[in-house]
């Protein structure tokens, strides 16, 4: 009998992880509609659910600003160093790679277009510009055990990859990753997520670029 190493699968956040900064916060800060700061503080402080807070933030912006909002989001974002190398590493080493983003389709898909990630490996929220104000849509809501009202529910997706068959690796930076980090076998963290992991006593690898992530994956490869 040979025992096979579990299939590795990565769940990678988008805002503040694949991109250097949080695009939702950047958009709202830039257009600066009255009342946004209290909402952001309530999301970060976990007094509002992510779905509720993000929905409220975009409701502050009129749909007539679509072009400006989309253009700003896309031109403002910077992809974190090493991302293309991580994707290549995953291909070469048979690691499944999913983008699990609390971000919005109108910036997530255009910013990822150059990387040729299959569309069914990208999970994010949707948007609807047909009303007066921008509405966010939620095609991937919490199912089953998750009662967190995530919006795009990372744990719902992670649970589709059972622990018995997969080594589940989460890469993230902030509040949309807190629940997933509790479930994952390996966590790569920066920013608020490192703080949360410390609070919860979860072990994590801190990263600044995706080269840091690759270095740890290589070490794991060498020891299994
Ligand atoms: Mg993030
Ligand atoms: Zn959820």
Automatic annotation (TrEMBL):
Catalysed transformations (reactions): 2-hydroxy-5-methylsulfanyl-3-oxopent-1-enyl phosphate + H2O = 1,2-dihydroxy-5-(methylsulfanyl)pent-1-en-3-one + phosphate
Pathway: Amino-acid biosynthesis; L-methionine biosynthesis via salvage pathway; L-methionine from S-methyl-5-thio-alpha-D-ribose 1-phosphate: step 4/6
Enzyme Commission number(s) of this protein: 3.1.3.87
First-tier enzyme category under EC: hydrolase
GO molecular function, one term: 2-hydroxy-3-keto-5-methylthiopentenyl-1-phosphate phosphatase activity
Entry keyword set: Amino-acid biosynthesis, Hydrolase, Methionine biosynthesis
Record-annotated membrane-spanning stretches: none
A Pfam family that the UniProt record links to this protein: HAD
Family annotation (InterPro entries): HAD-like_hydrolase_phosphatase (IPR050849), HAD-like_sf (IPR036412), HAD-SF_hydro_IB_MtnX (IPR017718), HAD_hydro_PyrdxlP_Pase-like (IPR006384), HAD_sf (IPR023214)
Family: Belongs to the HAD-like hydrolase superfamily. MtnX family.
PANTHER family per UniProt: PHOSPHORIC MONOESTER HYDROLASE, UPF0655 PROTEIN YCR015C
Record's function text: Dephosphorylates 2-hydroxy-3-keto-5-methylthiopentenyl-1-phosphate (HK-MTPenyl-1-P) yielding 1,2-dihydroxy-3-keto-5-methylthiopentene (DHK-MTPene).
Protein name per its UniProtKB record: 2-hydroxy-3-keto-5-methylthiopentenyl-1-phosphate phosphatase
Organism: Paenibacillus lignilyticus
Underlying gene: mtnX
